[in-house]
Every structure is written in C-alpha cells, then in structure tokens.
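Lecture notes, unit on protein representations.

Consider one protein chain, 172 amino acids long.
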Amino acid sequence: MRIVILEYRRMLNFASIDFETANYNRSSICSLGIVIVENGVVVDKIYSLVRPRPNFYCSWATDIHGLSYYDTLNEPEFPEVWEGIKPKLRNLPLVAHNSSFDAGCLKAVHDLYEIQYPNYEFHCTYRTAKRKFPNLENHQLHTVATHVGYDLENHHHALADAEACAEIALQI
C-alpha cells in the first residue's frame, strides 16, 4: 500500500473513497462511499451498505455514523459489493481524508476475504491540507471542507464524506 500526499497541482482523474466501520476491526466495513472524478468533473457516485465481518457494532461506532447491526443484517458482504465497484475504478488513484485509515480498511478487508490486493495508490487530502492550510484550527474533514467552500451536511455518512473529499481534492 502506497500513500501519497497530494502535490500542489490539481488532480483531475481520481476516485475519492470513504469507509465507515462497525467496530474496532478495520475489516468491519459497514458502508462505503465513492465519488469518481474524470477531467475534474464528478461522473459517478456510489454508496452501499455492507454487512461487516465480524458482524457486530460497537456503541461508539453507531454513535458516530448512526448505523447498527439491523441496518446491515441483510446487506451483501464486501466481496459482492466490491465486484461491482472495482471495474469502475479503472486504476484511478484513490483519494481519502486521512487515507491511512481508509487504505488500512481496504487492505484489511481484502486480507479477510483473501482477495488479491492490487496495491491501490492512495492520496491523502488530510496531509495535503495540513501543508497547504497550516493555520486552520484543525484539519478534520468538515473543517477543511468548510475552508474550501464546501458544506458538509451529513458528516460520517460514507458518500457525503467521499463527496467532501473529492471537492477538497479538486480545490487543492
């Protein structure tokens, strides 16, 4: 897994990605959001609930994103969801805010299900924002989104977070 800090150039082709997890296991992805950007324009948005493995929710996780065991009980597991997403990524670099978390989740869930991991290239808007906007109060997703003029209304919803991340990447 390679994590890259965005350079001071505008990325035009990428997929921003965000995962929410059910518990302390990085493999316990319970929802995912992906925004695909081509030539600087959003061309696709993907959101899916995922039945996590292991299938239990910590109360702190539910408090953060609002999802519970019953929300994902009848949802597909990660391999089924990812099969439909993987072709849409077409070797695009992935962008995440605090990419070490999202890259770790993606690697962990590939390991769990024994899926070959294609060594996705990750870029990190969190680290880039720290360099580009050193005077911000903090560099959390909602703070950076507001700074670049994006209104993140539903923080910790995987698609809303991926949309905010895409906008940050386009701005920086």
